[in-house]
Design goal:
With 397 residues, this protein is an alpha/beta fold. The protein is built from 21 helices and 14 strands. It has helices at 10-23, 38-42, 51-54, 66-83, 94-107, 131-138, 147-155, 166-169, 171-174, 179-182, 186-193, 201-208, 222-238, 255-262, 274-278, 290-297, 310-320, 327-332, 347-359, 361-375, 380-396, and strands at residues 2-7, 31-36, 46-50, 87-91, 115-119, 141-144, 160-162, 196-197, 212-217, 243-249, 268-271, 283-287, 302-306, 339-341. The strands form 2 sheets. Strands 3-2-1-4-5-6-7 form a 7-stranded parallel beta sheet, sandwiched between helices. The longest helix has 18 residues, at 66-83. The two termini are 12 Å apart.
């Protein structure tokens, strides 16, 4: 089997490698080519571009990188035409991948009829609803990772299936310990302390003394951090010693880069140990995204925040009928995670809701327990791989 896979960022490399690993159980000698990162490369993917090069075509840089975008689109589609894959698999990264899907259908000679699969489609309930029509027109099969997406997409004629959710089937998430136990688990906190960069000895002592941990999950994109950090820092200064704040930095942002962005080193940080911090987090502040779902799996009461243009927010809510931003709130159909959108992210709201989360902690954790049940235990990578295998067998016998 010949597969051409395009993953434009770190998460796509992870999700893509999980699908390929499942497929290799059926087809051990997959001929894999495309765009990805280290994990796909380890599985044998021949890279025409890697995810570091794809960072050039991020949304915030689109205008100044139009030549690079079209250069990459041309190179990839020409390479596909020469490779003649059985399956084209696009992972997330809609700003680029939907353009690529259009180009495949309109400007290629040998692969125009190749089966095109899209895994993790754009979150059209938040912005860019028009993208649903691109999925309908250019993609053969779409696999979504949130249950409510399937109906929205199907209503517009997209061949969509809920595959399951990566966080829900994650072994760590499925074996989540009760945070109330972990708050008093000396061994877990001692291990956690080894990975935290404390900004002074007093902070380390507070952790050792059992002070509650407030986890700050600022996002994996620099823009997410720069848009929100000022109000977060103001609020941290007003917290008393009932909490120690630890910022969870993703793999793609170093501690030094983070400190440069926020302009101070007076923040405790932990790098690339997100789940370890979650297991010890009492309360969280998080940029809206997948991390809020992972926090729900760990039953962490969370305040989510988000920046989006008002027109996009209004249009998205009107068209889809969804009245919430946070994926956990959408799944549960209630605002179990307070949503601080745009100017609502301020010190007063952060302090007020942090207090309310502590006051209603047990009830909130009971609600969060329902998230895993509603998402189910389907392995999305296995679901996608099985469909690709069945499709290939039906086509080639």
């Amino acid at each position: 089997m010949k597969i051409y896979l395009v993953a434009g960022e770190q998460s796509g490399d992870t999700h893509g490698s999980e699908v390929i690993a499942q497929l290799m159980k059926i087809y051990p000698n997959i001929n894999l080519r495309g765009v990805g990162g280290q994990q796909l490369e380890k599985l044998g993917q021949q890279q025409i571009f890697n995810i570091k090069q794809m960072e050039l075509v991020g949304i915030s840089q689109v205008l100044r990188n139009v030549p690079n975008i079209y250069y990459m689109l041309n190179e990839i589609t020409n390479d596909m035409d020469r490779f003649k894959p059985d399956i084209i698999l696009l992972i997330d990264y809609p700003g680029f991948n939907l353009r690529l899907a259009q180009r495949i259908r309109k400007h290629t000679k040998h692969i125009n009829n190749t089966t095109l699969v899209y895994y993790i489609p754009p979150k059209i309930w938040l912005w860019g609803y028009r993208r649903v029509f691109d999925l309908k027109q250019y993609v053969n099969k779409t696999f979504c990772i949130y249950p409510h997406e399937q109906q929205i997409l199907q209503n517009e004629g997209v061949n969509a299936t809920y595959a399951g959710n990566p966080a829900a089937c994650n072994s760590v998430a499925n074996n989540t310990l009760d945070n109330n136990t972990l708050d008093n688990n000396t061994g877990a906190r001692t291990e956690l302390a080894k990975h935290i960069r404390f900004h002074n000895n007093e902070q380390k002592q507070l952790l050792n003394n059992g002070t509650k941990i407030l986890g700050w999950y600022p996002g994996s994109r620099q823009k997410e951090i720069t848009s929100n950090y000022k109000e977060i820092l103001k609020t941290i200064e007003l917290l008393d010693n009932n909490y120690i704040v630890v910022a969870a930095l993703p793999i793609n942002i170093t501690t030094e880069q983070f400190h440069n962005i926020i302009g101070t080193t007076n923040i405790n940080t932990i790098h690339n140990k997100t789940h370890m911090l979650m297991q010890n987090t009492h309360t969280a502040w998080a940029a809206s995204g997948t991390v809020t779902l992972e926090l729900a799996m760990h039953k962490v009461p969370t305040i989510l925040y988000y920046h989006i243009s008002q027109p996009s927010l209004t249009i998205g809510k009107t068209i889809t009928g969804i009245k919430r931003i946070g994926i956990v709130n959408i799944i549960l159909n209630k605002n179990i995670m307070p949503e601080l959108i745009n100017s609502q992210l301020n010190t007063n709201n952060l302090l007020k809701h942090t207090e309310l989360l502590a006051e209603h902690r047990i009830a909130i954790q009971q609600d969060l327990q329902e998230v895993a049940t509603l998402l189910g235990k389907h392995n999305p990578a296995q679901t996608v791989a099985q469909w690709i295998s069945d499709s290939h067998q039906n086509t080639h016998g």
